[in-house]
Design brief:
By secondary structure, the chain is α+β, with helices and mostly antiparallel strands. It is built from 4 helices and 4 strands; from the N terminus they run αααββαββ. It is elongated and about 80 Å long.
Length: about 180
């Protein structure tokens, strides 16, 4: 088992944002673990080359925000009432260290990922006479899908003068004088 990579933010940076002391307190180990966990989540979103040699300031902010949430609410409470005391845990997805949707969006911008992807087709740009009418579709889990229609359209420069577009036909003559 490999040791976790160094956190992308420091305990003093987390202390400043959390507005409480961590170094030299019983919470120091929890703070360091939360920074390590948050850094691992960020590394899953952003390629390592974009985090070195200097970690972007917004990444430090996101790591500290995620770690700070875990420090402020380690048990994952969603609500608490004082009169006739009662409490409610949140769902399991919001306990511990996590990244919000907005934080993930910022990290995608840093990683230059839009969410759009391209894919290669099984056909090269060579002779198009023997291309099939469909291409196979295979889903991410490996199951085959319905073949996708495929048609190659040859582009050619317009020859000579291009006639002007025809005037639009009036579909409704009720407004003519």
């Amino acid at each position: 088992m490999t040791a976790p990579a160094a956190p992308l933010a420091t305990l003093p940076e987390l202390e400043t944002r959390a507005q409480r002391a961590l170094v030299g307190t019983p919470e120091e180990a929890r703070g360091l673990a939360a920074l390590t966990d948050a850094s691992a989540l960020v590394r899953a979103e952003v390629p390592p080359a974009l985090l070195a040699p200097t970690v972007p300031a917004v990444v430090v902010t996101i790591v500290c925000q995620a770690a700070g949430r875990a420090l402020r609410n380690p048990d994952g409470y969603a609500s608490e009432t004082i009169g006739q005391y009662g409490y409610r845990y949140g769902d399991a997805t919001v306990t511990g260290v996590y990244l919000t949707t907005d934080e993930r969006a910022v990290l995608r911008r840093i990683a230059r990922r839009s969410g759009l992807r391209s894919t290669r087709t099984p056909h090269s740009a060579g002779d198009h006479a023997d291309l099939p009418d469909t291409v196979p579709v295979v889903y991410a889990d490996g199951t085959p899908g319905e073949p996708m229609p495929w048609r190659f359209v040859e582009y050619s420069e317009p020859q000579g003068e291009v006639p002007p577009p025809a005037p639009p036909a009036h579909a409704d003559d009720r407004h003519s004088g």
